[in-house]
Every structure is written in C-alpha cells, then in structure tokens.
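A.,

Following up on our hallway conversation. Structure tokens first:
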C-alpha cells in the first residue's frame, strides 16, 4: 500500500465517530431522550426542557450560549433506532453538506441498555481534510461528554432495570 492509499484509508476511518455507553434504564426511557432532535446541544447537562421549534420538517434547537442548530429526522424505529441529519449549525447552513447522527438502543442481559451513537459524513463537510477533521475533533470529544450526560439524565429519573426471563 502506498502512502497516498494509506492516508486515504485513514481519512475514511476518520469520516465517522462511534461511541457507546451502558445505561441502567429501560429502552423506552432512553428512547424518550434519543427521539428528541438535538438533545445533545447543551453545556454537558441534558435539560428537561429544550428550546425546540419546528419549521416544516426541520427541528430547530436554540441554545442560549451555543446558538441555533437544525435537524431533520431521517428514521425512527421505536425504541431501537433513530437517525437525524444535522443540517445546520452556527458555522454551517442548510445548503452545505451535513453529518448523519444515528442512535441504537440495545438491551443488555441483566437489564439496562447500551446506547450507541455513530456520526458520519465528516469528509463531505469540506474539500480540505484539515477543515473537516477540525470539526470532527470537537464532536469526537463532545460525544464522550454527551453520552455521559445522557446516562446521568436518564438514570436520575428511571426506574431500576429488570432482567428478562
């Protein structure tokens, strides 16, 4: 493999972020959070109430300090899978390429769930890899924070999970 191919493969791998966290709550309770477009637009703590409005099929989240973010719901398969197109941010409008944010809720043996997130499509955000890699870097760190925030939010108000018979 030559250097060019190797670098291309590395960039392909960097086109997506995949993270997961175990949450001690039933799938339905985790679904209630995941189905909210842009619940992860926060300062590290999920809010009970979100500044959410709709403009046609676009959900608009307005955060007092982070700005306005736009999402289009792509698919909902209650309570297992949700996908949203992150179509607008303070640095990108809806006419530019976007990333896809997908969530999976997998029940664990013994109770609780594993919440998985994959955000993909970073390489389409800009022609220059340095530009989209910079945006990816912020989200890579951000998903660690947001999954921890999701766990804290869901577990604080969730009944204890029960095992399956």
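Then the amino acids I'd put at each of the 165 positions:
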């Amino acid at each position: 493999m030559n250097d060019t191919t190797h670098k291309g493969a590395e960039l392909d791998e960097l086109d997506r972020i995949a993270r997961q966290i175990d949450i001690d709550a039933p799938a339905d309770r985790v679904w209630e959070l995941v189905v909210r477009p842009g619940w992860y637009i926060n300062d590290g703590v999920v809010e009970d109430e979100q500044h959410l409005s709709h403009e046609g099929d676009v959900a608009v989240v307005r955060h007092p300090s982070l700005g306005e973010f736009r999402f289009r719901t792509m698919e909902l398969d209650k309570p297992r899978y949700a996908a949203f197109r992150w179509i607008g941010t303070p640095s990108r409008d809806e006419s530019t390429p976007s990333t896809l944010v997908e969530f999976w809720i997998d029940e664990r043996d013994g109770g609780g769930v594993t919440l998985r997130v994959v955000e993909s499509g970073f390489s389409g955000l800009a022609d220059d890899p340095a530009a989209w890699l910079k945006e990816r870097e912020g989200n890579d760190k951000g998903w660690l924070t947001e999954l921890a925030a999701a766990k804290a939010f869901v577990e604080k108000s969730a009944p204890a999970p029960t095992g399956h018979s």
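The first helix runs from residue 3 to 14. Curious whether your intuition agrees with the design.

B.
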